[in-house]
């Protein structure tokens, strides 16, 4: 395939989706330590893809390979339609990368940092100033633009870092742990920034140790563990991989609750739900019916509720959260669970 042709796949409705990033069989070892043991990735243009994994899983190594900072020992990858091995310059021209170690120079002001990037991208002076001012404004840094970046908070530095990445107008952005160490407010601001980037047509590959972050942002998630992709899919698909989903019925009338609970005990529900469905003794008057969360099962449970004359005041579907998935897939201990949160 010529290096300028983007690989494609057939998406929903038979549409052909161009890949912003595609990789097959990426391998990397340091000495006798295998860091990546054959990674395949497919990231459609205009989407957010999260590489989720514990410390040392190989996330940064993957980003460094895809951004041509290091060579893989094996496998192939294309970024923006360019082969990382044969056309690294074109790859670099198409991407922006912000890493765990930021490019921000603390001695320079925010504005000076931006203008330096504009210079690096050979923007003429006036155009450079216009782009810099626009991005500083967009990222809420206009007021602090004349202050040295060393005086910025962690969240401001991270925003400046992304603003600097955007000076060259990249169509694909790699964000390596963009919110590690940020407080909840700054993390939410960063999430909003990522969403806006993608709304503007940019493709984002982000690495994260935070399950909630992947859940909030990503169209698709790959769980990286021990140098391999343990599972890949939409957040909802991943959550369906592990048990723990249920339908919750809440009643306000205690007698309706009691009769529903007794009907449920004798019921023959899908998914073996009936016997376990008689929820905890419950002051909140709720019943839980185990469910895999699929449309088919939900429909049959609703049909059964109708036929049994059960009408709850509230019905909610609970899928297992990514915590459940992550620890099922990575075999994490309580110790690593703490480290990952
Ligand atoms: N240059 C190197 N030399 C030797 N080992 C390395 C090198 N770079 C990475 N490693 C090792 O490769 C493994 C994966 O590292 P990587 O930084 O890709 O993980 P990560 O998933 O990004 O983890 P973290 O969340 O801690 O950043 C680690 O065990 C690390 O020590």
**Helix and strand succession?**
EEEEHEEHEHHHEHEHEEHEHHEHEHH
Biggest β-sheet strands, sense, barrel: 6 strands, mixed
How many distinct helices? Answer: 13
Q: Structural class of the helix and strand makeup?
A: alpha/beta
**CATH fold descriptor of the largest domain:** Rossmann fold
> What is the total number of structural domains?
2
> What CATH architecture label of the largest domain applies?
3-Layer(aba) Sandwich
Average pLDDT level: 83
| CATH homologous superfamily annotation of the largest domain | P-loop containing nucleotide triphosphate hydrolases
User: Can you count the beta strands?
Assistant: 14
Low-confidence stretches: 1-15, 271-281, 333-341
Name every ligand kind in the structure. Answer: adenosine-5'-triphosphate
Estimate the strand proportion.
Answer: 15-25%
Question: Main sheet: which strands, in order across?
Answer: 7-8-9-4-10-11
Distance from N terminus to C terminus (CA atoms, Å) equals: 42 Å
GO molecular function: ATP binding
Keywords: Antibiotic resistance, ATP-binding, Cell membrane, Membrane, Nucleotide-binding, Translocase, Transport
Main location: membrane
Subcellular location: Cell membrane
């Amino acid at each position: 395939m010529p290096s300028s042709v983007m690989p494609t796949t057939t998406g929903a409705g038979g549409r052909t989706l161009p890949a912003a990033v595609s990789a097959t069989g990426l391998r990397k070892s340091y000495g006798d330590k295998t860091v990546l043991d054959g990674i395949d990735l497919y990231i459609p243009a205009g989407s957010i893809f999260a590489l989720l994994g514990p410390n040392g899983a190989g996330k940064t190594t993957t980003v460094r390979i895809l951004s041509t900072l290091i060579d893989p020992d094996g496998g192939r990858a294309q970024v923006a339609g360019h082969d990382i091995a044969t056309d690294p310059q074109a790859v670099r021209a198409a991407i922006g990368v912000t890493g765990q170690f930021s490019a921000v120079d603390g001695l320079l002001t925010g504005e000076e940092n931006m203008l330096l990037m504009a210079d690096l991208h050979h923007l003429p002076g006036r155009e450079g100033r216009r782009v810099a001012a626009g991005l500083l404004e967009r990222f809420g840094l206009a007021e602090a633009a004349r202050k040295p970046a060393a005086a910025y908070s962690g969240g401001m530095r991270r925003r400046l870092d992304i603003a600097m990445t955007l000076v060259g107008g990249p169509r694909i952005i790699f964000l390596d742990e963009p919110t590690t160490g940020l407080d909840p407010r700054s993390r939410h601001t960063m999430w909003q920034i990522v969403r806006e980037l993608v709304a503007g047509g940019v493709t984002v590959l982000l690495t994260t140790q935070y399950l909630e972050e992947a859940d909030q942002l990503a169209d698709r998630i790959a769980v990286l563990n021990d140098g391999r992709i343990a599972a890949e899919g939409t957040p909802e698909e991943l959550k369906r991989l592990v048990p723990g989903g249920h339908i919750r019925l809440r009643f306000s009338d205690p007698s309706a609750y009691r009769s529903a609970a007794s009907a449920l005990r004798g019921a023959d529900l899908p998914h073996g739900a009936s016997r376990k469905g008689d929820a905890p003794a419950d002051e909140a008057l709720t019943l839980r019916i185990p469910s895999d969360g699929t449309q088919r099962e939900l429909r049959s449970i609703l049909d059964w509720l109708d036929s049994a004359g059960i009408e709850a005041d509230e019905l909610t579907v609970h899928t297992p959260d990514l915590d459940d998935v992550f620890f099922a897939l990575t075999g994490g201990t309580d110790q690593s669970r703490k480290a990952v949160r």
